[in-house]
Each structure stands twice: as C-alpha cells, then as structure tokens.
Amino acid sequence: MADLLSIGRSGLTASRTQLTTTGHNIANVDTPGYSRQIVTKIAESTRVANTGYVGSGTSAVSVRRAYSEYLTTQVRTNTTKNSHAVAFQSQVETLDSLLADSTTGIGSALDSFFTSLQTASTDPANTTTRQLVLSDAGALAQRFNSLNATISEQNSLINKEIRAVGSQINGLAETIGKLNEAIATASSKGEQPNELMDSRDEAIRELSSYIGVSVVQQDNSTLNVFIGNGQPLVVGEKVNALEVSRDVDDPTQVEINFVNESSKRAITGQLNGGTLGGLIDFRDKVLIPSLNSLGQMALAFSDAVNTQLSQGVDLNGNSGAALFTDINDDALASQRVTPSTYNSSEIDGSLRITSAANLVASDYQLRFDGSNYTALRLSDGASIQVSQDDQGVLTFKDTLGQDQGFSVTLTGSPVSGDSFTLLPTRQAAGDIQAILTQPDQLALAAPLRSEAAAQNSGTGSIGQPELVGSSGSDFESLEAISSITWTYNADGELTATAPNVPDGFSVVITPENISIDSSNTNTLSYSLAINNGTSSVSYNIQQDFSGIPKEGDSFTVSFNSQGVGDGRNAQALVDLQDKQILGVTRSSSGYSLSDAYGNMVESVGTTTAVARQEVQVTGAVLTQATNSRNSLSGVDLDEEAANLIKFEQYYNASAQVIQVARSMFDTLLAAFR
C-alpha cells in the first residue's frame, strides 16, 4: 500500500508538471521566439517481488524545448537574405521611379531643349525662338540639378539609416552577451534555462535581419556570433561593437568600423546580408554609379554644346559665348579631389576634364608610395597607369592605353602613404548651370560662308564651309583678313589666295593648291594659319565642291560677320542629340546622350525587376523555413488543449490511485482492531 501510495504520488507530481508546462505553452503562444516546452519523464526503477519485477512509479526529469538547431539556422539564414532583398528593393524602386518619371527625369527636358534648337535653326533671327532655347537650357540644367539633389538626398537618408541599423546591431549584441552570461550561470547548475535560450535565439534572429551572422556553440551553452569575414561580434559574454563614422576617403559617405578593446578597422566592404548589407549594396552598386552616370552625361552634354557654340557666330558678329558653366571652372575642379583624412600632408588638388567624351562614370583612388603614383578605378577595380609631366600634372590611362579623360594637379608634394579620392563625374549633374542670358549672344550661325563669283562660267559649286577645329576660341584674326579666294586654274586645281591681309598680319593656307576631280564631289580640307604679329591662330576647314568649273572661276570663303539668317551652327547643335559624345573608348564609338540616359534608366529598371523577384523568392523560402520551425517549436493551441484534457485525466487518475491506496490502508487497519 505504501508502494501504491508512492506510485500515485509520483503520477500526481508528474502530471502537475505537465499541466503547468502546458499552461506555460498556451500563455506564450504568441511570444516571439518562444519554443514549445515538453516534459521528459522516465519510469522509476523496479523492485523484485515474489511475482517478478514490480514498478515504482514515474519521475519528470526535465522540461526541454522542442528545438532544432538546423531549422533555427535555416530561419536565421533566410531572414538575412530576405531582409537584404527588402532593403535593396525599397531603395532601388525609389530611384527607378525618379529616373523613369517624365516630370523628374531628364529625358523630356532634353527633348524640349533640342526641339527648341530645331525651331531656332529654321528662324535664327527670331528673338522669341532664341529666348525659348535659353529657357529650355535653363530648365534642362535645373532638371539635372534637381535629379542630382534628390539622389544625393537619398544617399544622405541611407547614411542615416546605416547609422540607425548600426545602433540596433550594437544593442542586440549587448543583449546576446548578457543572455550568454545568464545562460552560462544557469547551465552550471545542470539544467538549461529554456526561456533565456529562446530569448537569445530570438535576439540572434533579429540580429540576422540587420546583418549576416554565423553562430558557433560553446561547451558552456553560450553562443559566439561572428559577422563579415569572421569578425567576432559576441564571444561568450564579451561584446565588440560596430562604429559608423564618416568615410575617411569620401565625406559624402559613411563607413562601418569593427571596434574591439585594442583596435578599430573599416569592414564596410566585408559586410553582407540583412538590412545593412542591402543598404550598402544599393549605395555602392546602384546609387553612386547612377550619380556618376548622370554627372558623365552633364559634363559631356555641356562641354559639347559649349564647344559647338564656340565655333559659331552670334547676331552681333562675335564668336559664340558659352551656354553652360565651364566644366573646368577652378572651384569645380578643386571639388573633384578629396584628400584622405589619414594623409600626413595637408595638400589638396584639382581635377580638370581633358576629354568629356572619354570620361568613365566612376570614382578613382590615387595613392602615392613615396616614389610613384598608382590609381584604381573604383567602378570595376581596374588598375590605372599614372603619368606625371614636367609641370607635375598627372594623367591617367588604363592598361590598354585608353585615356580616362581628366588630369590632376596637386598643390604640393605628397607624403608616402597619402591617398586621394578623385570624383571626375560624381558631382557634375549638380554643378551644371545655364549662364547665357541674352538671346542675341546665342551663336546659331556658322563663322564662315562661301559663294561663287557672279561671273563664273562653269558649273562648279562650292558648299558651305565647316570649321572643324581651331587653336583659338575667337574669330578676331579671321574677321581681320575678311576672306580667302579659291580660283580654278588650267591645271585642274583650285588655288588659294588671301587678298585682304591687313598690315602686320601674315596668312598661310595649307595646301594652297587642291586638285579637283570633276566627275565626283570633292571634299576640300585645308588649314588657315593667321599671325597678327604677336600671336597666331589656326583654323581647320572642310567644305564640299562639285561640278565642272572653268578656268578663272573663283569662289570666296569669308567671315560671316552678321550671322543673320544663318542657322547652320544651330543645326550642328541639334545634331548633338544623336551624336556619340560620351563613353568613347578604343573599342567603342560611344553613346549619344539620349542612348546613355536610356541605358541608365533601363539598367536601374532591370535591377528593380530583379530585386522584386528576389523579395518574392526569399520571402517564400523564409515563410517555408519559418513554418518548418514552427511545426516543431511553435505552440499549437489545439494540441495543447488536448494535452490539458489528457494531463487533467492523468492527474485525476493519479489522485484516484492515492485514494485507493488510502482506502486499502484503512481496511487493513480495521482488520486489526
């Protein structure tokens, strides 16, 4: 009877533990990270009786978690991937809508500018159409500025979010370290603290939503957490930290440093996964390249327009003034070189664009080792060869000999280890300004014109001359000599003379004689070198010649001093819309401005579509992993309700066993009375 009483009591104790555990499960049905708990029981040892081995009850030996390290790791890993995808998608969709929208992108403003130029080319003397060109130029520059400012603001918001995420990571690391300490203390008593371990797993899962982590379990039940390329964020109860600070090479960006007791080192490029990885990937792989591409377009466009205008004549007979800001303005050039804050010297520098058509949409890193300069193109990691001339000007070519389109001049001598970030294109879209305000100063006319002499008897016809290059930017010398004359001679050649050379001037025409093939259209290519006694300037000229002239026929090429009714330079400006003016390399003829912007919009759009798909895929995999984990560790209320009934019956039955044992004992006592 004593044995029966002991057995009943053991069942009562075990069932009470199971009821308590079931109630605890139900109470935590929606607690984040909670793992369903299960009571582990064993049968008590048996004893030998006359009839054989007889049992002695049960014992609840432990309360354990329904837990799988594999499933927990799967949830953690897929949380990292999905959070990365969501953060990346959120940012890239913002940029995509900005670039593709006709009210914010530059596509529509670009079309309006060239449309107004086309109108002006057909009526170049009309002040209203000229003013429209200036207005549309200002609107286009403003669109570049606005788009650049909005993308830059997105960059600033990303920097702020990176700082906030860094704080969240540090807070969670502290929590994990404290939980490790508490778990190690509790585990030393022989039992695992389920709730503490659940809290730690949930903290690590939340941490994995911010950054990719790897976890290693230790013998004392603590977990070590590593990030990046194995940097130990948490080791037992010891916690290191991330520090978000201004990038030493680029003040517009932030960098992430790993900080422990003895050192601090930048690890931005080593981090991956989670919200932090998504933000960094978007910033480095999409946002900054987009700013550089936009700046590359602004530089190539403004330089091409200004260059073409310089080859024209305005309504006052003056050489063309610039419509947009000089791309090599001293203030702009100095902004393109950023010394590292770690430099030993205090020198600065300036970067000047030498060929906007050759520019690559990239930042560069320039380093000095005490003897030589080396450079790295950051967009693709390509090594760039650096040359220095006698004046200290640095020029840059890739390994194929392709000029990078810019030069750098430092303000002094660097010290070994000094480095500089070069930004030839990054800020350019924010710098472009329309600076021409007077419509009569818009050089829509070509500087030269030609005509056949009225007394010519042949069928020879000379086309309008095109100025294809000069060593000067004005036409004072050209205006001074007024004109040159080509005369057809008996040898079938055109011979050039300059009949109106002022005193003190000299003129050299090369070649002086050009043979004419009367059966074909000829291209006359010649140079005109003019010396005014103190300086010289040369002009390269091309024009077509066709027909059959007669001996003595002459053709005059003269300076277009009035420029009224002449829209040839305006048409040359219109042609820039489809001309390949940027991205010119040894292997590529380059892109037109419209194509370049279209490619940029298409690239970001494709990236956005891929990002959306990535969110869907990683979200589905995360849901599957979470469901698998919940099927094992989650609380099922139906199951727990059934357990309540079962364990209540178990409890009542155990109580009945005790009641029977008591009744038997009472009967036995009564027998001896």
UniProtKB/TrEMBL annotation:
GO terms for cellular component: bacterial-type flagellum hook; extracellular region. It is found in: Bacterial flagellum; Secreted. Residues 633-669 form the Flagellar basal-body/hook protein C-terminal domain. One of its GO terms (molecular function) is structural molecule activity. NCBIfam families: flgK_ends. Belongs to the flagella basal body rod proteins family. This is Flagellar hook-associated protein 1. It comes from Azomonas agilis.
